[in-house]
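This protein record is not my work; I was only asked to verify it. Where you disagree with what is written, explain briefly why. This is what I was given:
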Amino acid sequence: MALSTNLERVGPPETLTSLLRAELSAVETYRGALERLDGQPVGAQLRQICVDHSRSVQVLRGLLLRHGETAPAASAGREPDIAVRGDDELAATVHALRDGEARQVEAYRRALADPALTPGVKAMIRSDLLRRSEGHVPTLEALIETG
């Protein structure tokens, strides 16, 4: 019983900070993609996914703040280089975004196996963050198929 109580009091592991940095990077990446693809029909779907990532950022920041941790303000990452222009730019961008989403889904699944995360944090990941990310993959795959 004391072990369980101690686990609940442990500060958030690096896992939460890593997930937050990935979500911040996703927001930056989607904003960059929206700038490059301004006026394209895929804009509405990409904008909604960007909003979803912004919501995930807020959830993760809240989890970190609840544990008394300072949440990073930036991802310390960078957007993927997409050197293609014209019609192929859309396809290359959406492929890169889909690959990033797949990596984010895997990161959330790995987090669920982290013994340092509390059951409450894992429930939030499972019911909100992971589910949201999993929904982005088929959306982007549909854009690739119709592209």
